[in-house]
Amino acid sequence: MVEAQLSLDLVQTLSPDEETVHAYVLDILPKGVPSYVRKVSWFFRDRRGFTADLVVFDGGTCRIRVEGPLGAGCYTWANFGADRRPFHWNRRRRRWERVTEEALDAQA
Question: Is the pTM of this model over 0.85?
Fold first, then answer.
């Protein structure tokens, strides 16, 4: 009950910019997959869309650029900071994970 209340409190304190980022991120994820966004640290809106710097599930950072309306947006991401590896949702473990160095080496 306490955990649910904390989650509800966090949702209620989001700024309109943070709500926009979360809505767009959740829009492209399969139903039931939680957002990888922990925090929106910077947000800029222009006439074509928005750019935001994000703190993600593991404390890493990335930048997202979205152009177009919700439901038909064009997304681009850039990882920056200490861990530049891509990440993905692990359905079996039900959590977000970074791609391992071994998997990246195997793709090269």
Answer: no
